[in-house]
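INFO  loader      accepted 1 record
INFO  loader      residues=366
INFO  predictor   begin
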Amino acid sequence: MRFFVFSFVLIGVGVAGAQASRSAEEYVRLAMLKDQFVTYSCIRTLHRWDDDECIRVRRDQASSGANKITVLSPLSKQGRIIVDDGRQWTSYDPDRQLVVLQESPVSKVSRAEIEARFEILKRNYNLRKEGEDRVAGRVAVRIALEPRAEDLVFARRYWIDVEKFVLLRVEWTDPSGRSRIVSDTLSISFPESLPAETFQTKFLGKPETIRVQAPKRMSRVEEVSKAVGFEVIVPQKMPAGLAFTGADVVYGRRSVMAALRFTDGATNVTIYQGKGDGNDAPWRFPPGGKSLKVGSVYLAVDGDLPPSGKEAVFQALKQAVSQVIGAPVEIEDRHEDCDRKGIRFEPVTDRARLTRDERTIFAPCA
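INFO  predictor   done
INFO  writer      dumping tokens
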């Protein structure tokens, strides 16, 4: 009995020692690799950067990557469900009686891609351990991500569970020094498994069902150009260390668009390019609030960037378009609440991002 207790103490000391010796880089890398494949159930609050709305959600996740997000509040969004069972991504809005189905993106990001993304992150951020806190009753190491392009992107803090490597809290700080907790875990449990019915979807009444095709990754930009019917422009000089990671063809209800993916390791940026219909743009509200127009082709920038960063990327895109095609027309667009006017046809497909929940829930419609 004494031997058993002594062995247990030694194991505990060993685990604590391993935690203490891990660097900030190791914690972030492990979170990128493991966070999405740990079985847990939690309650989280999500805050959009640019307004005061707070959304409370329940997230259930299996080690396979299957996950379910249920909106608990506010009342205007209560009951919305997003389920990804590894085969199919399903979004259900009970107020609009609308179900959107799409192929699951769970299995589409490889370990090699996540490792490559981590290397990009190390080039663009200084990572620093600040200490430990308790978040949702769990011990979490607090990691500061200090960007080298400090005037263009958010500085971040991640609170990472020291045992499970799940991201428990995320804070963004803009170039002016303003900070906000954008994701915060209130409670969390780690069962060995979740009931199979967790990821089964049940709907009230007979909602309208829309099936949309998943974004299709192309190996070459030329293939994307052929699919969308015009020359797709890839800026060669992007600010803030943003690296090109791939090009997708995105299929919407009204149009087919090119989506060029960029990341600095933590920040995610997409440049959308699509043909308009007459004088109508291919989107109801352009990502980023404004767009470029060359002939019948519209271009826009979306990403988790402060205004200075969005403008820098927008100007890089504008310069690239001018060099390849000709001077584009810049269009300012009025922000409208599009929540009841349409749907965003592209769920989050970048499984390597660490702040994926808030983008999924807050995503604007297409």
